[in-house]
Amino acid sequence: MARNNTRFIEAHNKLLTICDKTEIGGTLQSENVLAADLGVSRTVIRSVLARFDDIGLIALDGREKVIRRRTRAGDRLEKPATLLTIEELEGRFLDWVLRMDVPPGTALNVAQLVKEFGVAPHTLQEFLSSLSRFGIVVRRPRGGWVLHGFTKEYALELSDFRTVLELNSVQHLVALAPDHPIWARLDVLEQAHLALLERIDRDYHDFSVLDETFHEAINSVVTNRFVKEFQKVISLVFHYHFQWNKADERTRNADAIQEHLAYIDALRSRDVGRAQAAALRHLATSKQTLLNALQANSHTL
Description:
Number of strands: 5
Largest sheet: 3 strands, antiparallel
Structural class: mainly alpha
C-alpha cells in the first residue's frame, strides 16, 4: 500500500509543510501541480490527501482541498528503518558472533536475529542458506538453523583452498597485458600501503580493510562464478579474523604490509614462479594468524 512506502511518507511530510504555508480556509493547488512539485505520481498525492482528510487537516470537496487547521507534531510520519542488504548482513552477523561469543551448537533464533540486525526475514534466511553451503551453519531437520562453529580443521581447509584459488589468480594476473586495469589498481594499492605504513602506530587497525581490498583485487582477474562464490566467504572470514586476536596487532599488521609490498613487486616482475612464491609466503602468514586467532578465542566462528 502507498501509505507504507517511503515515497508516500516523504510526500506526506513535504505536503505538511505546504499546508502550514497556506492560510486556514485557503486551498491547495491541483493534484497535477502538487505531484510535479513533490516529484511523485498523482496516485501518491491522492493517497496523501485522503489521509489529510481523514485526520481533519483538510476538507476534500470535489477538486477543492481546503485547509481546516494547522499541522501538529503527531501528523508527521516516521520513515521505516532502512533494512540491511545481504552484503551488509555478512559483517553484522560475524560481528554479532564475535561480540556475543556465540559457541558452536547454538540454535539461531531467526525472529530474534531479524530484530537484532534490522533485516528482512527472507534476507536472513537467504544469508543463512548461503553460509550453510560452506558448513558454517546447518539447517535442523525440523526447521531452524544451528551455528556449526569455526573449528581448527575448518580454518585449515579454508586456508588451503584460499591458497589454491589465489595461486590460480596470480598465474592469470602476471600474464595480463600492460594496459590491463589491474596494474593501475596495484599502483594505487601500493601507495595506500605505504601511506598506512607511515601512520601505522596510530592507524594499524585500518589494515584489515586494506587487506581485504588487496586480495579482492588480485582475485578479481579471474571471472569464474564459482571462484567468486568461494572468495566471498573466504574474504568474510579472513577479514573478520583480525578482530579475534588483538595481541601484537600493530606489529603483525606492519609485517603484513611489507609482505603485500613484496607481493606487488613480485607480480610486476611478470615471473609466475616469483609471484606465486611471494603469494605463498604471505598466505602462510595469514593462515598462521588465523590459527592464532582461533586459539585466542575458542568459541570463535
